[in-house]
Design a protein that fits this description.
The complex is a heterodimer. By secondary structure, chain A is of the alpha+beta class. Chain A contains 3 helices and 4 strands, in the order βαββαβα. Chain B has 16 helices and 13 strands. In chain B, α3 packs across α10 and α6 runs parallel beside α7. Chain B is globular. Classes of the chains: A alpha+beta, B alpha/beta.
Chain lengths: ~90, ~450
């Protein structure tokens, strides 16, 4: 399955490195990344393939959310289908 | 690649605007549980429910994590128990206790189907079940009961209307020490749908398959927020925005329904595309109407605004789902909607206006707290009025009134949780007793002759 990771929070050095490092640790393959900075808010969206992920999806999502919280970042990990379904016919 | 704006919109709907899946409801047929002995029937009912619904809650929780969207309730609806106990007889409360035990075992929020369909008349077991409703709802926590007393095809069973006035009152009296909660778990229908996933009126109709997954969506907060972005749009724009938003909400319902059905290996039934409010701030249908331009819900114009909302929700939702059913539309339960509560407290919203609103909303007079000394005949007359609206307009209508025992206008009944709190609303005290006590049947209307 493929999941969308969104990260929103105050911009700081190393957010992209941290999240992609986390993904590689669990063998989640990053497919696409887009990021913008609105004023000083950092907003990143990452599409990852979890086919080879070493842990269950729920554990992966929980662990990533937790490490986001430690940096004061709001992190969501959701199956890509929820976005495809809602916005594409 | 997915559009960034779309992704953030979805997350914003879930995080800030209370978008959720209100319920995954598994419908289970109990016909094969019938036997000639009540104990055997109850054992079969318990075994069947706990087998079929064993993984329901776990699957709901898994989908919640996978899609990042809250799934508030996992519920079960069963074949109307009056049909099942027709063969085995015995004390109906025994069947309610069996359902209660099964619901605790599988961990669902509610089981609906302690029901009887009596639009044209009573069978012996219908009568026994209805008379046991107050007791059954007092000794259980997770059982919901419904009685269908009329339909466009059959007319209205006025003997049942009369009886239900008494039963509603007794259900409140028997649970007077628990905020009269019994009456909040009982709904009286006209044109009850067979596949409704929402409580208290869910049951698994006689024409339904062995087992089925029905899903109810929600999201009044999302609709309101979308409307707040077009403060100067005309009514065409308003209807269009509601339609588009309902489409998006329903798509999520369809996705969850498909996946739940697949994981549970049960066919998908319907998506009920309802706007179901909760007492939480930002989750109110009344506030949508106010966003359209009403100073407060209940003023003149409310019926028209609700009609626009209800129709646009259906239009948007229908396109988004392969099978639509249940109640589908905008709910207006007073105690479960922060805006309705405020309007009822301030006097802006009266029972008369609510009755008019039910002609264009998805269900009927819902979660309305009335004075504790209201007579059974007045409750029956309210049921008759509401059923007449449903019968003539070929729509589902329902009544869920809570007589607040020991309380009067000015007092409030606090249920807590999703059921919220309701101010006691004044009713007309002029007596309809003679009309109600006539009994008999209101003949099926000319609208029924469609063949």
């Amino acid at each position: 399955m493929r999941a969308v990771i969104t990260v929103v929070g105050k911009d700081m050095v190393g957010i992209l490195a941290k999240v992609s490092g986390f993904c590689s640790e669990y063998s989640a393959n990053v497919i696409e990344v887009s990021q913008t900075i609105l004023q000083d808010m950092f907003c990143m969206i990452m599409l990852v393939d979890l086919k080879a992920c070493t842990v269950e999806f729920s554990d992966f999502a929980k662990a990533l959310q937790k490490s986001g919280e430690e940096l004061n970042l709001s992190v969501h990990v959701m199956h890509e289908d929820i976005f495809n379904t809602m916005h594409h016919i | 690649m997915l559009n960034t704006k779309d992704i953030l919109e979805t997350i914003h709907m879930i995080e800030d605007e209370n978008l959720d899946i209100r319920t995954i409801t598994m419908g289970i047929s109990l016909f094969d549980c019938c036997s000639t002995d009540p104990d055997t029937t109850c054992t079969k009912i318990y075994d069947k429910i706990t087998t079929y619904a064993k993984n329901l809650v776990a699957v709901g929780n898994e989908l919640e994590t996978r899609y990042g969207i809250p799934i508030i309730n996992k519920r079960i609806s069963v074949t109307p128990i009056s049909m099942i106990m027709a063969a085995s007889g015995g004390d109906p409360v025994k069947y309610a206790l069996t359902l209660e035990k099964a619901s605790r075992e599988v961990g669902v929020n509610f089981i609906g189907g302690f029901s009887a369909l009596v639009q044209k008349g009573f069978t012996k077991s219908d009568e026994a079940l209805i008379n046991s409703i107050p007791e059954a709802l007092a000794v259980t926590d997770h059982i919901c009961s419904s009685v269908n007393i009329g339909s466009t095809k059959a007319g209205i069973n006025m003997d049942a209307v009369k009886l239900m006035g008494k039963i509603v009152k007794e259900a409140a009296e028997k649970t007077a020490d628990r905020n009269c909660i019994g009456a909040a778990k009982l709904v009286v229908f006209c044109n009850a749908p067979d596949d409704n996933p929402f409580m208290a009126g869910a049951f698994h109709g006689a024409g339904e398959p062995e087992c089925v997954i029905n899903v109810g969506v929600s999201g009044p907060g999302v609709v309101r927020s979308a409307l707040s972005k077009i403060p100067d749009g005309d009514i065409t724009d308003v209807a269009d925005v509601v339609k588009k938003t309902a489409f998006k909400i329903t798509r999520i319902g369809q996705l969850v329904a498909n996946e739940a059905a697949k994981m549970l290996n049960v066919p998908f039934g319907i998506v009920d595309l309802s706007l179901a409010p909760t007492p939480a701030v930002g989750d109110s249908v009344a506030h949508i109407l106010e966003e359209m331009g009403l100073e407060q819900c209940g003023c003149h114009g409310t019926t028209a605004a609700l009609a626009i909302l209800n129709d646009a929700v259906k239009k948007g939702g229908t396109m988004a789902s392969s099978h639509v059913g249940g109640l589908s539309g905008a709910f207006i339960p007073v105690s479960e909607d922060a805006g309705m509560i405020d309007a009822a407290v301030s006097g802006a919203l009266s029972i008369q206006k609510l009755e008019a609103m039910t002609a264009v909303c998805s269900v009927g007079l819902d979660m309305i707290v009335v004075p504790g000394n209201t007579t059974p005949e007045v409750i029956s007359a309210i049921i008759a009025d509401e059923a007449a609206i449903g019968m003539i307009n070929t729509k589902t209508t329902a009544v869920r009134l809570i007589p607040a025992i020991g309380k009067d206008v000015g007092d409030t009944l606090e249920f807590g949780g999703l059921l919220g709190s309701g101010p006691v609303m004044p009713l007309s005290e002029i007596s309809p007793a003679k009309f109600i006590n006539r009994g008999g049947r209101i003949p099926a209307p000319i609208q029924s002759l469609k063949n």
